[in-house]
């Protein structure tokens, strides 16, 4: 993860987004990559249109380089000092450091003044041999290497490896995860290599496999079939090395394997295959080498090894068990086993010795190896405990066997069954543990399996026609390849559509269930599913650069990162094993001395053993029952499952630190634009304060704003395109001296005028007077929850642009749910106070901070933290990055900027605000699971170790044999992993989690019921005749308590609403009424007023010109040329009808050309309306040169059944209102862009299915058939659905209210009533029927 302090300093000094270079010019989705440091970008200050010469210091800073030299011959610090002084005397040396131990010198220098050769010659002049090893820029000085490590058993192993890696020179940070069996190492490649890191791991006694070196290159392995002779090997190597973009080639002749490291921007695997096959003149065939080194393969191999070992151990252990504990009680067999061979040595003892030896030394060899590795590095792990325990039992048994063979009267008992059974049970436990651990990483495996195995590669000719298609391995796709995706097929790589249109299901990547429409130019993600049409896609990011690979890497990195709570287990593990060994020895010593001095009766000692053997058994039991693994696995397994579940639901959590912080969050700071709102602002109104043509006005504004990345700037530029002659490729005047004032606006010089576009505070700050009229317009705009942008041209306020950014669906519900979770919500925005307050009031946020700059947002976060709050920041833009870094938990919107995503701890892939709830709820449940793991792991050791030590033996004669203790130890690790795996059943919360509270209440009631009946029975408060003869008062109380617990049914309450909503929305969909969730259903059933738009809703929406009346002497053709030239720029249905009618008078009806219209202005909602009342037609008044010239009558017929619908609504006591402009009331029925504000503002927005995309998106209910009758269907269906929900709640609550008291015994008075005996059957019948 990016260092927060470093990122803060970069953002603070950057002064805006210009300080960051984008990763690529080609389209790509904004999905989080692995954390990287932001690269510096050289900047040149521009004043007055001329470049000012940069200062020498600035130039030198930008050109600084780092070089590493190998220096041979240094013997002591004096040699290093002489080399360092000689280098520093050279001009252009910034700094130099000499490492005498590793014979290296690192030099930071300015290439404008000194070269690498000069530095090397200077070192040689001092008397030492020097060679340039490596030269890298500063941002390449740290790489992240990943290693897979085999053989770790507990946290002691991982701590040992972590310490060994940290001690390697050049390693900045090392993390070793026991659960994933991987190590992540941040290292300086100029000081240490990945191979040296692997050697450091192997020196600790564990096997290391390189996953990635962290270098910014791709690597592929190819298998070569054919005569791979020395000549061919040399030719292939030389041919591949000659290719541009190839960094390294390694050939293994024995395996016929060629490993190639390359840059994907310049070449790819298909080129390598072609080169290899052409080199061999057709005799060589190349293909991708089968993957056998993946994590899944190694996990499967480990599972198989433990399974085989366990089976082999059973082959020997079962006979040992039978001869020692079963056959001794079978006549005939007992005599054979008790037959003496030499002196007191019996046949049974020799058989057990022979059978247990392979188990101890061959099958149990792994424990000896683990013990040796641990002790060699001065640490102790679980293997040490197992080896000591089994060896104590085994070698004591050998002692008894030898004594029996040499003594004529020695009577002893062997423990061969203890050692062999102990190893068998531990192997079984390890097998179950690795099996369960494999399931914790299933989320990553599912992500990796999303990519298709094959893809269809197509080729175009120069004219754009497809000339060939062929199926290839998807791993052979290269950048800029064109891939064909068939309906139902998976997209093989990231890219953009160049031909075709379809809907793509992206749920497997983003969690968003609704298919997304894709057309030419739209971005697609690899691994997603094409629903219907055929698509041709140009690949932009392949291999490790793809969004899927980046998500997998981020989840893997998150699972590697340790949560702070893990440090608790790490601290315990350092002392746990030595403490257990000490306790074991103390236990043995105490029992041995107690037996030696007869401190307990001889009757306590079992007949088959003596006091020494009893003490030995207690000591071994203590040693093997202790389980450090359970403690070590408590946190990482839960974090693995939690982050995996989050990724599958579109919430990427960057490690345990983020999870731990998120579960403590009690205050969330929301950005407004793009977070609470959709982030797609649109210009809704323009008010000019000076006499100016609107087209010229927007030319000035767009010229300044086109250089900004702010969403409001993009909205203004998009709107300005409508006034350009070429809307697709507009050309704006050149803007000079551009300055982006973060959080306020922009300033530039366009032509010879200064243009300032920004908020009111910016104008005040730079001394531009704001007239009273402008202030009134701004106040009115803010009252309507719109943002007013002030435009100054030539230091005079020229106009105000009003921009609207609708709230995200569900924003109000999210804030309400956070309140119920006792999380305070605060909104911080750079927008004006009026707009901010209007938005906050709409969503239910009480605390608002407006007109805040990025650094002020960060300061506010710090203030909240100072008041003992755990703060989360939710944002999406560059200006949110400082606050995201400063917050305890930074939550970034997935559709936001890359910098915001990199700065955040949690990324919401779907950009849905509801996922804030999911992230917090998932983190809370994960840490609840971690707490349960620790309670179990610690409780197990605290309770079981004393029992194994024999604290209960003096009172109960109960003791744990060593083999049972070993089985308990194995079971404890498995139970912790299984407890973590329960997180896989996580479901995101829909409403406040009543289920959890109801469970707590039911358990309390059950306990209270038992306690009352128990105390009443204890103090004889009811006749003894009430107690059935088959039980006592305690059992009677227990039955009542259990009955209360099992009869309660929280499920019915939980299912009351969702089942009815599911059926209701499903029925609606089948009838062409799409209802967007339970909120829409609940609001619709309360509707008592419907506002209906006229055009396209009550009417057909297809107006036609029916008559034209000229008031001046004029040719009708000329009249319509003027009218059509003006109306052709408008999107209004009436305007389109006029233009269509005007074509009838054109000489070329198909390709008509209208005169050019300038200074076009569309006045929303004010197209000239003079109704011809008697004929229900619209009269359009035409004025040419300030004179009334004519009237056009347009008819728009009513939809069939419209009068019946209005009549039926009246009978349902629903008032109907018709409007043709915006109206902010209860339910709105509309179809156009101009209806969108009303659709959003109404309690229920109903859109016509044939309407505009914006209207459909804004609505709560969509009528697919566009029939007006479906308004009735929607309201009636919602009323019936909520009537069903009410009935469900009455039944669910009534069942529990009646059933629980009965189960608690309120009707119980005597056994003759039959209530008691009939109750259990009644409970289950009621529970099942509910």
Quick take:
Helices cover 47% and strands 19% of the residues. It has 46 helices and 48 strands.
| Helical residues, percent | 40-55%
Poorly predicted sequence stretches spanning 5 or more consecutive residues = 1-62, 135-140, 992-997, 1164-1173, 1221-1225, 1310-1330
> Could you tell me how far the N terminus lies from the C terminus, measured between alpha carbons in angstroms?
50 Å
| Main sheet makeup | 7 strands, mixed
Report Rg.
39 Å
What do the pLDDT scores average to?
75
**Which band does the percent of strand residues land in?**
15-25%
Global shape: globular
Q: Which class best fits the helix and strand makeup?
A: alpha+beta
User: Tally the helices: what do you get?
Assistant: 46
Strand arrangement in the largest pleated sheet: 26-38-37-36-27-34-35
Total strand count, please? 48
């Amino acid at each position: 993860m990016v260092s927060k302090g470093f990122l803060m300093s970069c953002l603070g000094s950057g002064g805006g987004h210009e300080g960051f270079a984008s990763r690529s010019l080609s389209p790509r989705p904004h999905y989080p990559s692995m954390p990287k440091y932001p690269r510096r970008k050289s900047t040149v200050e521009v004043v007055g249109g001329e470049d000012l010469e940069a200062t020498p210091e600035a130039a030198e800073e930008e050109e600084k380089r780092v070089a590493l030299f190998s220096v041979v011959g240094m013997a002591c610090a004096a040699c290093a000092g002489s080399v360092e002084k000689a280098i520093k005397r050279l001009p252009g040396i910034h700094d130099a450091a000499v490492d005498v131990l590793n014979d290296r010198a690192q030099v930071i220098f300015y290439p404008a003044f000194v070269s690498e050769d000069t530095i090397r010659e200077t070192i040689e002049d001092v008397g030492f041999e020097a060679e340039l090893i490596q030269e890298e820029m500063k941002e390449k000085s740290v790489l992240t290497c990943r290693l897979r490590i085999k053989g770790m058993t507990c946290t002691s192993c991982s701590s040992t490896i972590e310490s060994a890696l940290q001690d390697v020179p050049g390693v900045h940070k090392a993390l070793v995860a026991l659960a994933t069996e991987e190590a992540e190492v941040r290292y300086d490649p100029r000081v240490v290599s990945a191979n040296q890191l692997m050697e450091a791991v192997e020196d600790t006694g564990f096997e290391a496999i390189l996953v990635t070196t962290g270098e910014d290159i791709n690597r592929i392995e190819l298998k070569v079939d054919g005569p791979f002779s020395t000549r061919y090997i040399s030719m292939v190597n030389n041919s591949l090395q000659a290719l541009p973009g190839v960094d390294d080639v390694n050939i293994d002749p024995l395996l016929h394997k060629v490993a190639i490291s390359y840059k994907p921007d310049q070449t790819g695997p298909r080129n390598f295959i072609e080169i290899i096959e052409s080199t061999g003149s057709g005799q060589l065939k190349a293909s991708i080498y089968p993957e056998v080194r993946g994590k899944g393969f190694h996990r499967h191999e480990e599972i198989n090894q433990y399974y085989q070992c366990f089976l082999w151990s059973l082959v020997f252990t079962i006979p040992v068990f039978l001869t020692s504990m079963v056959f001794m009680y079978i006549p005939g067999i007992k005599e054979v086993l008790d037959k003496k061979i030499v002196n007191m040595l019996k046949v049974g003892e020799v058989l057990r010795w022979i059978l247990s030896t392979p188990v101890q030394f061959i099958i149990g060899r792994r424990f000896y190896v683990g013990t040796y590795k641990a002790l060699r590095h001065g640490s102790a792990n679980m293997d040490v405990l197992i080896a000591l325990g089994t060896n104590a039992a085994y070698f004591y048994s050998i002692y008894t066997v030898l004594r029996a063979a040499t003594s004529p009267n020695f009577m002893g008992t062997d423990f061969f069954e203890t050692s062999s059974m102990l190893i068998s049970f531990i192997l079984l436990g390890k097998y179950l543990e690795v099996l369960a651990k494999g399931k914790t990483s299933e989320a990553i495996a599912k992500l990796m399996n999303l990519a298709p195995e094959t893809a269809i590669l197509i080729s175009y000719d120069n004219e754009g026609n497809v000339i060939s298609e062929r199926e290839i391995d998807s791993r052979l796709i290269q950048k800029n390849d064109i891939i064909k995706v068939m309906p139902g097929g998976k997209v093989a790589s990231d890219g953009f559509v160049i031909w075709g249109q379809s809907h793509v299901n992206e749920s497997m990547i983003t969690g968003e269930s609704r298919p997304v429409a894709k057309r030419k130019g739209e971005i697609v993600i690899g691994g997603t599913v094409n629903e219907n049409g055929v698509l041709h896609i140009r690949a932009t990011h392949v291999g490790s650069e793809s969004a899927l690979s980046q998500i997998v890497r981020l989840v893997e990195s998150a699972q590697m990162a340790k949560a702070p709570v893990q440090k608790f287990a790490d601290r315990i593990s350092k002392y746990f094993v030595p403490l257990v060994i000490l306790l074991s020895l103390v236990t043995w010593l105490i029992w041995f001395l107690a037996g030696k001095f007869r401190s307990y009766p001889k009757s306590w000692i079992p007949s088959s053993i003596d006091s020494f053997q009893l003490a030995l058994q207690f000591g071994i039991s203590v040693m093997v029952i202790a389980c450090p693994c359970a403690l070590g696995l408590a946190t990482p397994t839960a974090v693995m499952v939690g982050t995996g579940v989050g990724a599958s639901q579109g919430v990427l959590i960057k490690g345990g630190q983020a999870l731990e912080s998120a579960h403590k969050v009690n205050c969330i700071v929301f950005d407004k634009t793009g977070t609470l709102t959709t982030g797609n602002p649109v210009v809704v109104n323009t008010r000019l304060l000076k006499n100016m043509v609107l087209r010229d006005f927007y030319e000035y504004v767009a010229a300044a704003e086109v250089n900004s990345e702010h969403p409001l700037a993009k909205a203004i530029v998009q709107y300005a395109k409508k006034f350009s002659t070429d809307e697709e490729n507009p050309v704006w005047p050149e803007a000079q001296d551009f300055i982006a004032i973060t959080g306020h606006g922009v300033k530039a010089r366009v032509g010879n005028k200064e243009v300032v576009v920004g908020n009111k505070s910016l104008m005040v700050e730079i001394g531009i007077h704001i007239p009273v009229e402008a202030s009134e317009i701004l106040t009115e705009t803010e009252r309507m929850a719109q943002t007013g942008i002030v435009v100054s041209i030539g230091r005079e306020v020229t106009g105000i642009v009003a921009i609207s950014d609708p709230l995200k669906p569900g924003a109000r519900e999210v804030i309400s749910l956070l309140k119920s979770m006792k999380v305070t919500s605060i909104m911080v925005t750079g927008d004006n106070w009026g707009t901010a307050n209007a938005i906050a009031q709409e969503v239910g946020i009480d605390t608002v901070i407006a007109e805040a700059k990025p650094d002020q947002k960060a300061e506010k976060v710090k203030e909240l933290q100072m008041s003992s709050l755990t703060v989360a920041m939710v944002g999406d833009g560059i200006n949110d990055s400082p606050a995201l870094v400063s917050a305890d938990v930074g939550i970034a919107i997935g559709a936001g900027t890359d910098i915001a995503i990199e700065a955040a701890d949690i990324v919401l892939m779907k950009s849905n605000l509801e996922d804030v709830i999911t992230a917090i709820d998932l983190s809370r449940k994960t840490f609840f699971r971690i707490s349960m793991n620790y309670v179990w792991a610690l409780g197990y050791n605290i309770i079981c170790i004393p029992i194994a030590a024999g604290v209960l033996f003096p009172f109960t004669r109960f003791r744990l044999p060593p083999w049972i203790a070993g089985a308990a130890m194995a079971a404890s690790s498995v139970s912790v992993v299984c407890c973590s795996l329960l997180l896989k059943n996580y479901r995101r919360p829909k409403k406040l989690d009543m289920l959890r509270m109801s469970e707590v209440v039911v358990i309390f009631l059950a306990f209270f019921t038992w306690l009352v009946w128990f105390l009443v029975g204890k103090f004889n408060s009811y006749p003894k005749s009430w107690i059935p003869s088959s039980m006592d008062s305690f059992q009677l109380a227990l039955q009542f308590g259990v009955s209360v617990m099992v009869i309660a049914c929280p499920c019915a309450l939980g299912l009351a609403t969702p089942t009815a909503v599911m059926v209701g929305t499903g029925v609606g969909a089948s009838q062409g009424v799409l209802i967007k969730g339970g909120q829409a259903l609940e609001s619709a059933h309360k509707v008592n007023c419907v506002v209906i738009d006229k055009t396209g809703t009550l009417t057909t929406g297809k107006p036609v010109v029916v008559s034209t009346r000229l008031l001046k002497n004029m040719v009708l053709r000329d009249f319509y040329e003027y009218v059509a030239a003006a109306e052709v720029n408008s999107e209004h249905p009436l305007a389109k009808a006029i233009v269509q009618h005007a074509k009838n008078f054109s000489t070329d009806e198909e390709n008509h050309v209208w005169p050019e219209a300038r200074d076009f202005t569309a006045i929303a909602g004010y197209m000239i309306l003079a109704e011809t009342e008697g004929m229900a037609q619209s009269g359009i008044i035409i004025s040419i040169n300030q004179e009334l010239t004519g009237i056009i009558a347009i008819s728009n017929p009513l939809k069939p059944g419209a009068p019946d619908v209005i009549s039926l609504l009246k009978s349902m006591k629903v008032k109907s209102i018709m409007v043709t402009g915006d109206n902010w009331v209860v339910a709105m029925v509309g179809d156009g862009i101009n209806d969108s504000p009303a659709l959003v503002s109404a309690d229920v927005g109903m859109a016509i299915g044939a309407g505009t995309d914006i209207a459909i998106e804004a609505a709560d209910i969509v009528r697919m058939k566009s029939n007006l009758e479906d308004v009735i269907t929607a309201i009636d269906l919602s009323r019936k659905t909520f009537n069903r929900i009410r009935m469900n709640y009455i039944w669910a609550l009534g069942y529990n209210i009646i059933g629980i008291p009965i189960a608690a015994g309120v009707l119980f008075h005597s056994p003759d009533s039959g209530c008691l005996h009939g109750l259990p059957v009644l409970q289950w019948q009621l529970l099942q029927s509910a």
